[in-house]
Specification:
CATH architecture of the largest domain: 3-Layer(aba) Sandwich
Structural class: alpha/beta
Distance between the termini: 38 Å
Number of helices: 13
Strand content: 25-35%
CATH superfamily of the largest domain: Acetylglutamate kinase-like
Helix content: 25-40%
Radius of gyration: 23 Å
Shape: globular
Largest sheet: 8 strands, mixed
Strand order of the largest sheet: 3-6-2-1-9-11-12-10
Length: about 400
Amino acid sequence: MLLQVQPSAVKLLVKKFGGTSVGSIERIEVIADKIADAFHAGEQQVVVLSAMAGATNHLFALADQIDPHANARELDMLVSTGEQVSIALMAMALQKRGIKAKSLTGAQVSITTNNQFGRASIEQIDCSQISELLAAETIPVIAGFQGVTGDGDITTLGRGGSDTTAVAIAATIGADECQIYTDVCGVFTTDPNIEPSAKKLDQISFSEMYEMARLGAKVLHPDSVSYAERFGVKLRVLSSFESGTGTLIEFDHPNTLNNQIAGIAVAQQQVLMQLDLTEVDNDSHSHLFQQLSQQGIEADLITSLNTDVPQLSFVVNQSLLASLLAQLDNLSQSMAIAKIDYKVDLVKISIVGKGVIGQTGTVAKIFEILGDHEIHARLMSTSDIKLSLIIEQKDLHKAVRALHHAFELNKA
């Protein structure tokens, strides 16, 4: 539950800056100038920061040197310190410019979460201190990515959780807009590093952005999009390195009205798992995926085949392979697993478009394009808004470029 207040007549913005935006003292000074200019222009601002680029990875690496399987609570205690560095430095930079600012941890602004360490969910935010600071013309500089349980334990929201922090705060204080500043100038039709003709979208719907983020587009955390849609927060992606209007994520946009493909998301380093089973048991399958989820292993494109040799196939990120194999070894007896095979160096590409993927002609066109380029899809999953395919890494650029041009996304 979010404790909301009514928005004031003054334009109120929540601005989140990612790790690359505050990755050095020089970058912090640049961002402080932007915040100061906006303050003098009359904006009310709440600033949410990630840790400086590389800081969180460094903290995880330190933990690995002590214990690769360290306690989740202690990991959260450790990695949450990264944001404390960036918010303190930013508050100092703003104060140096004659602007009142105060750095605050997640606990200090009462961002209450559940106790799922490492991937906690926000349950409530008490906005009273934020409102008091804004009334006193003081800019709150808040640590993203973190909260606190009812028992006072520090938690983190998972990678990309600073986006979620910003959106949740924006919903709580009734902000006019939540702006996510990153190292790209908006949301593109696909990864420009794969397809140089990719176009920046001026607008995209919540549902399409959620699928793009969940399926590989790294510009926003999926949870932040879900929060924004749930609480009606206008969300905008902007570059902290260049000027521009970015991409607005909201309920309605031209692509929805025109029934078009919105974009192509890419998730690299995927592993296709195939389990040969001695019997089909849906309860065992459910238990398997519950156990994997509890270990932070999220499976996708799950397929069960009741053939002469019952098979269960699914896809996971390659970085989770070692943990997955260990879990499967523990569960092999209870699941009656006869054989485990897996293939690496795979990619998941997902074509996203509300109201168009379900059309038979669209699906046929996708497979015709892949066939023309001799690209074999190993596994497929569809919904009314997306079609996901697993292909080999070597076919990635060819597939994305062919689909991108065939659906004229380069003309978006």
